[in-house]
Amino acid sequence: MRRREFITLLGGAAAAWPLAARAQPSAMPVIGVLYGVSAAEWAKPMAGFHRGLAETGFVEGRNVVIEYRWAEGQFDRMPAMAGDLIGRKVAVILVGGSLPGVRAVMAATQTIPIVFTTQTDPVAAGVVASLHRPGGNVTGVTGLGGELGPKRLELLHEVIPKATRFAVLVNPTNPVTMQEGIQGAQTVAHRLGLEIIVVNASTENGIETAFASAVQQRGAWLYAEDAYFESRRELMAALGLRHALPTMSGTRESAVAGTLMYYGTNFADFYRQAGVYVGRILKGEKPGDLPVVQPTKFELVINLKTAKVLGLEIPPTLLARADEVIE
Predict the structure, then answer these.
(1) Which of 2, 8, 165, 228 has its CA at a distance of 20 to 30 angstroms from the CA of residue 238?
(2) At 35, which helix (H) or strand (E)?
(3) How many whole angstroms separate alpha carbon 283 and alpha carbon 291?
(4) DSSP label at 58?
(5) What is the CATH code of the structural domain delimited by 8-142+266-296?
(6) pLDDT given for residue 140 in this prediction
(7) Mean pLDDT across the stretch 117-134?
(8) Alpha helices in 88-193 (DSSP H)
(9) 174 with 223: CB under 8 angstroms?
(10) 78-87 and 99-108 helices cross at what angle (nearest 10)?
């Protein structure tokens, strides 16, 4: 090759390098993440998600791009956010934080793979045909929160053994979760000889009224798994303290915010499992062939600061079983 031709070729290659570098990220697969909460409050679950992705060989910024959308408790924004992600040609969508949000993504696409996270039974909610073989373009991870209700009531009763009446807060706009929460609590209440008061709320004013009603009826407090309630965790914690109601909540973050206790899924591992599924789908597996995963790790979190404010003494045997004690 003559010298002039070599220089021309070298110069052309050098000019192309920056273009190739700029084009590289767009060649990476893109994951869409859509949640009804805020980025700040979901930092730990997302850390678990990233660990799961890494287990399958995917690291954000290195060989995969992630587009995040956070509804921050405004669940009516989720359909538009789902449409935006689909318009960006994402390879797979991770969605959760509310059952309506999951349904919004499912309604928006029947081709892009979807991995959901939910505490509701996805079969009863009509999200999948079965846990073993979900079918279509959908699979995910379920905490089956309704099945945890009995254990939560038992633990709360262990702290206040003299209480005979417990209020269960449910959201009437979320009928599947509402039914799960009521049935689970009533099963244990019957066995322990307790009375269950069902209180409805779907707005902030409704929540405040519900707490006042529970105080009038002298009931301790347990609330069903519900995305709206969790998006108002600071309000729930504040009302529990104001009305001196021992409160069992649906997430660790609620206990950190000031509710008395949380028992349920270990969210870091829960979202790690979701990350593994997203990675497996990126490698070519079909979501409909992947069984819906159920959690294997659970945790008990006790807020001792709240217990002291309420004048409660947590039994030493219960403290010894706690995975985390907030002091």
Answers:
(1) 165
(2) strand 30-35
(3) 17
(4) -
(5) 3.40.50.2300
(6) 96
(7) 90
(8) 99-108, 149-159, 175-192
(9) no
(10) 40
